């Protein structure tokens, strides 16, 4: 096996890490859009439609929900939350499932909020009874949860978590880090009563990196409007961005900072594709492929970081390597076979596991052999590395 | 006249606003690069080379100068300065030449610094004796200057300004907002002893929007390292970004937030083009075309916002419309002729002027008819609108 040409793109190894993912030809073509003014009507219409489509992707019909699409990495989403929805001195409960909770907690600290982390063992997630006890102990302005932890492949359950928060601490905002879940895991923003879901363009949504994407509920926007202190960031301030997002969605030119016009076109293209069939089918397809990957992993005698099926993400799989094998041994072998996986990211065990991303076009486009080739490459690669070590 | 096909791009009106500008075919092709891991060596090498090339574009040979390329709008550059180089309570002197100084001052205020604005009349810039008097009155941690004010077309003189600061207040950092100047105006970072120059990708550098680009001097980095308080932003924190930028430039994979891989490729492509001939020729060509535009404007009996030749930018021209004519009258006429200019941005006089951007490929590529067509369109358009009003 070597690199194959599965599209109009040059032959290249299949990128199967938990983001960035492979991109569709039409999306990459949109990236090369000719220069446009950010305040011209053709672009304003595209940006406005993009914001409206996001409402459908997040499944929110409340007109008071507020979408944001801002030039930046996914990380900027944390600043958007911490600088606008928390105030100095506020308490925030951060549910910890891996690497990303530590960073989100750091971000809150930067803006003066107190972040309390509720930790679970590696591969698990905080249990509802522990969350309930924590919520009863102190009044938290926000609770954050990483929907899919890219460092561990752990999936959190949002529906029951949100129900619990509403029962025990109804004013607490439920903030979902959906960087590795939006576009591949079910998220029913309205019916699950979520307050913030933040994500990035380069994961299951299938647009190149460079866009921070956030949906806020009516409750979240009211919390923002009731602030006693100004937001702690300038570039991430809702004071600056809310009028801009409202204007673009209402097809009115508006300026605070120049939007990344080509990336917005690419996002428009991929969201159009995502919404061209029912979201339920998209989520079902990701579950189906995830089951196939996880069955293959089990057949190879390998264990996942997340042992419980109900904790396992559907857009990625974090896999412990055989005893004594390290990522620098197996990853170059897979690359030679035309497949790119990612190494470990969770500091305590980074050298012991690899991550396989199965999201977006590699999963949805039945003509792409990416997933089957990756499973075969993994099987052959492991055997070759084992053999070479003997 | 209608839209013309001057490249491999679809026919479209020539974008001649002060950014985004027209992009070269090779740059737009780089935007469609296939998916790559942000920590793979092919991408790490491209990002590393990009950072090294920026040193040449800014004309700095001091290895302790620090380049940054971060996913975000040009506006993010203000946060990078205000959150990392100023501390709460610090005094900052903001030289005001238009719209952007007000916003930069707001940004400093967000992070707790006290911004004092030194204002000039519209179309002019603060004079050196006034700057000297201000510097003697109070100790300023930073002085900021907008090299080219996109709202007025006013050019500031950096060399003598920096010399003055070193003489009167040697520790004050000289911060240049070069959003509309880097790539079209001479900037000699080392020999003029500048401390920060910030810019955005979509102006004279010629890469689509979505990258904040900053160069910091050794003195600026020492000021950052001597901070007594942590930076006020998380996404814009040098604590997070300095190790990442150093690692990429040393060709080592590194992760804080996913870089916008396609935009980095496009920046690499355009910087390679910019550096393919001496920078002095590039600046001379921009001056030559600017002289031509300004002569044509004078011949039409129109006045510039910046009346003094030494105050006039070379990458754009801000032009007062004939008495009684407004941007909504002339701009659609120009659009029909295949040319896009921008309306006014300076709040007090926004309805009385238009802005003509002449930067990058429209100026450097002698095969492109953009500038000549724009001058003809302006002449014809003004006559038609005048006639229709009679």
From TrEMBL, chains A, B:
Pfam families: Aminotran_5. The modification N6-(pyridoxal phosphate)lysine is found at residue 203. Substrate binds at residue 355. InterPro entries: Aminotrans_V_dom (IPR000192), Aminotrans_V_PyrdxlP_BS (IPR020578), PyrdxlP-dep_Trfase (IPR015424), PyrdxlP-dep_Trfase_major (IPR015421), PyrdxlP-dep_Trfase_small (IPR015422), SP_NH2Trfase/AEP_transaminase (IPR024169). Its EC number is 2.6.1.44. Residues 29-346 form the Aminotransferase class V domain. GO terms for molecular function: alanine-glyoxylate transaminase activity; L-serine-pyruvate transaminase activity. Belongs to the class-V pyridoxal-phosphate-dependent aminotransferase family. This is alanine--glyoxylate transaminase. It comes from Phaeomoniella chlamydospora (Phaeoacremonium chlamydosporum). The lineage of its organism: Eukaryota, Fungi, Dikarya, Ascomycota, Pezizomycotina.
């Amino acid at each position: 096996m070597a690199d194959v040409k599965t599209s109009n793109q040059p032959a290249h190894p299949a990128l199967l890490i938990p983001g960035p993912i492979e991109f569709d030809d039409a999306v990459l073509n949109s990236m090369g859009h000719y220069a446009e003014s950010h305040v011209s009507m053709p672009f304003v219409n595209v940006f406005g439609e993009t914001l409206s489509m996001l409402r459908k992707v997040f499944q929110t019909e409340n007109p008071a929900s507020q979408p944001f699409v801002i030039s930046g990495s996914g990380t900027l989403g944390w600043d958007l939350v911490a600088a606008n929805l928390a105030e100095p001195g506020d308490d925030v409960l951060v549910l910890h499932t891996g690497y990303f909770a530590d960073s989100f907690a750091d971000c809150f600290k930067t803006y003066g909020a107190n972040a309390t982390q509720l930790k679970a063992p590696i591969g698990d997630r905080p249990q509802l009874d522990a969350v309930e006890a924590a919520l009863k102990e102190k009044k938290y302005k926000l609770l954050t949860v990483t929907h899919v932890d890219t460092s561990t492949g752990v999936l959190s359950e949002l529906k029951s978590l949100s129900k619990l928060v509403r029962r025990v601490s109804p004013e607490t905002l439920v903030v979902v880090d959906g960087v590795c879940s939006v576009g591949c895991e079910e998220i029913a923003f309205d019916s699950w009563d979520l307050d913030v879901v933040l994500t990035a363009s380069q994961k299951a949504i299938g647009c190149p990196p460079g866009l921070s994407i956030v949906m806020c509920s009516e409750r979240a926007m009211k919390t923002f409007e009731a602030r006693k202190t100004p937001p702690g960031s300038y570039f991430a301030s809702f004071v600056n961005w809310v009028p801009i997002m409202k204007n673009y969605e209402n097809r009115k030119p508006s300026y605070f900072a120049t939007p990344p016009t080509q990336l917005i076109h690419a996002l428009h293209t991929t969201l159009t594709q995502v919404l061209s069939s029912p979201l339920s089918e998209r989520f079902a397809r990701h579950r189906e492929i995830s089951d196939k990957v996880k069955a293959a992993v089990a057949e190879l005698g390998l264990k996942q970081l997340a042992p419980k099926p109900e904790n396992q993400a559907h857009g990625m799989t974090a896999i412990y390597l055989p005893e004594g094998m390290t990522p620098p041994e197996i990853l170059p072998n897979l690359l030679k076979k035309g497949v790119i996986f990612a190494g470990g990211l969770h500091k305590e065990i980074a050298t012991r596991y690899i991550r396989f991303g199965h999201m977006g076009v590699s999963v949805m486009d039945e003509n792409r052999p990416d997933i089957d080739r990756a499973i075969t490459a993994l099987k052959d690669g492991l055997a070759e590395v084992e053999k070479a070590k003997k």
